[in-house]
Amino acid sequence: MSKAQLSFSASKGLEAGKVLVIIPAYNEEKTIGDVVRGVRKLHPQFQVLVMNDGSDDRTRNEAESAGASVISLPFNTRGTAAMLAAYLVALEGSYDYVAKIDGDGQHKPDDIVRVLAPLYNGEADIIVGSRYLIDKHESDSVTKIVGRVFSSFIVDKLSGNIGISDVTSGFRAWNSKALRVIVDTYLHKRPLPNTSVTWIVETMIATRKGLRIEEIPVEVMPRVCGRSKSFSLIRLIAYPIRLILELIQEVFLRREHGP
Amino acid sequence: MVLERYSLIGILFSSGLILLNLYLFRKGKLRSSTFSLWVIIGIAILSASSFPMLLSLVFSLLGTEILISAVTASSFLTLLLLVFYLHYRINDIEDKMMKITALASLSKYRQEETKKEEKRVGF
Question: Half-sphere exposure of A161 toward its Cβ, with a 13 Å CA cutoff?
Fold first, then answer.
């Protein structure tokens, strides 16, 4: 099936289902409006939810005026509580599928349907949008490449060779089954992970629980303004240590609670 | 090498601290950052207790080569244990706070949506 056919068939089906698009945002007043408008223009049938993670600028107003529903957290939780709240909204609202894109404009709304397609077709429970599966992608710094290769390699080995190339990607989609498993784990079985390793821990939880993970190539645009909050020199040094410890803890918990 | 009694106390204390840390980490009760901090502290005490020469070297480098009294040592270890307990509790409370924040935000969102709906239907 060609890309165009895949997009078309999924889009037709997804109109009947209930899809929630989550956009976490922290001080993204300059970009959030355009991101929301972009999603709503292309996919008017999808519900758009902005998770305003304690921003102290006009992120909330910009998102609301662009037509999104907004949940505002009282302080910046660095994404963890914001994502948990978003998952809870999705489960409570009985959405069939949930897609998550960044609020900084790096993810293209055009890719949402392609990312949702394997979920709709029942081929996977979680989809990860990988920037490394397309031929033309923006060249990262050496440190980012090393970090990505290192984390993807370790997670891949610990998860039974699921063949994941971009484990830290924030462009993701879940079906309701996957969300129930993740929310149950966070609420009852383990502490919320550190924000820098959230996606890695979630991948480990998903494989432990037998959820199917697939990757879809997506294009990642350069940031329109500001700088990434994910990487700083201190975080870059602490990241490998934190990653290894989180993975060790996940392996311990796997033994503790079983699959 | 014959170990002094204070060295033995230090070794037992630090080993206990490391094991307790590991146990809580395994159970998912400690975050990785808290775990790494206390493992480093445990290893530092273990090294200083096993090789007192290291401690003497540090003291002489600092220019404060004063023998440590039993009162100071026991106070230090007790306080360290207390700080570890407080750190563990903060860690636990921080996680609970994040989860409560998520639930509270969801509840607030529901209220806002209900108000909007009521306004829309002219209730």
Answer: 0
